[in-house]
Write a structure and sequence with these properties.
By secondary structure, the chain is an alpha/beta fold. It has helices at 14-22, 44-52, 75-93, 128-141, 163-173, 190-206, 211-214, 228-238, 268-274, 281-291; strands at 4-9, 29-34, 58-61, 99-105, 147-152, 155-156, 176-180, 184-185, 188-189, 217-220, 226-227, 244-248. The protein is built from ten helices and twelve strands.
Length: 292
């Protein structure tokens, strides 16, 4: 059987590296991984030469500008990576058979209505980063390219810089730390996210009637509702670190970019549409720690 070819952009990020981690589990697919040194997503000519030179079925865009606070003073590069690159991709992929997978963010919701946030809720981006992710989404949705857009929250993994690794470092260095306890959401374990994407691709490949469902926007995060304080406390306990964690209010922790206090995502749509199960955050946190 001929393998389905997939190009993974931004392969050095948390999600990109997670696709590398699981690639050998999916023998029906052939992966090409492109980091920034191998392929600059802001170089449209290089993008076109690479993507049109191989018979790719899917392009998975893991490339993103994610320095949320730094984006406030680097708006141009943030918008270029998170939005203009989407314009380049969709222009190149238009009139081909390629399909796009793209990752977005809980930051663009920025609202609280007492319920988990649904994909149909009106976006209210409050930072440069949030606006850039929303612009990228709009560009993709307005294109003619079949595209799966997945909004995630609080991505963690054994790779790169993330909250879990920071907490372990601080837990080994300090007797106590203060962590925000009034922002609510859940982690997204990048390994779970990558596997979920591949499960969706398998379902679409075996059932072409699911292509309209693929061409849509979905939330994804691990199950449960927690705060950053809850995660930090769990990490110290699971890693047996002698570091006390104390709660801190958002207003006591100044950042350049405003954070959403409610990032609880409804996953009903993606679970029902593709018949998938999502692990609980604590289960996935333990798996993440075991892989560090």
């Amino acid at each position: 059987m001929r393998q389905v070819k997939i190009a993974v952009l931004g392969s050095q990020g948390q999600v990109g590296q997670s696709f590398k981690q699981i690639a050998n589990q999916y023998s029906a697919y052939s992966f090409d991984f492109f980091d920034r040194d191998r392929l600059d997503i802001l170089d449209k000519n290089a993008l076109a030469k690479t993507l049109l030179g191989v018979d790719y079925k899917y392009v998975i865009n893991c490339a993103a500008y994610t320095k949320v606070d730094q984006a406030e003073s680097e708006s141009a590069i943030c918008m270029a990576v998170n939005a203009m690159a989407c314009q380049y991709l969709t222009e190149i992929m238009r009139d081909t058979e390629m399909r796009l997978v793209h990752f977005s963010s809980d930051y663009l919701y920025h609202q609280y209505n007492g319920f988990p946030l649904k994909e149909s809720d009106n976006p209210n981006p409050q930072s440069v980063y949030a606006r850039s992710k929303y612009e990228g989404e709009k560009i993709i949705r307005n294109s003619a390219v079949p595209s799966l857009i997945i909004r995630t929250s609080w991505v963690v993994s054994p790779f790169g810089h993330n909250f879990v690794k920071t907490m372990i470092k601080l837990g080994n260095e300090k007797p106590c730390i203060n962590v925000v306890n009034d922002q609510y959401g859940s982690i997204t374990y990048a390994y779970d996210l990558a596997n979920t994407v591949m499960l969706i691709l398998e379902k679409v490949s075996s059932n072409p009637d699911l292509l309209p469902a693929f061409n849509d926007t979905y939330n994804y995060a691990n199950e449960g509702i927690i705060t950053w304080y809850d995660i930090a406390t769990a990490i110290m306990k699971l890693k047996h670190l002698p570091c006390d964690v104390f709660p801190l209010c958002t207003k006591e922790y100044s950042t350049a970019a405003v954070r959403p206090q409610w990032s609880v995502l409804s996953k009903r749509k993606i679970k029902n549409q593709f018949n998938i199960e999502i692990p609980h955050w604590f289960t996935s946190l333990k798996a993440c720690l075991a892989n560090l």
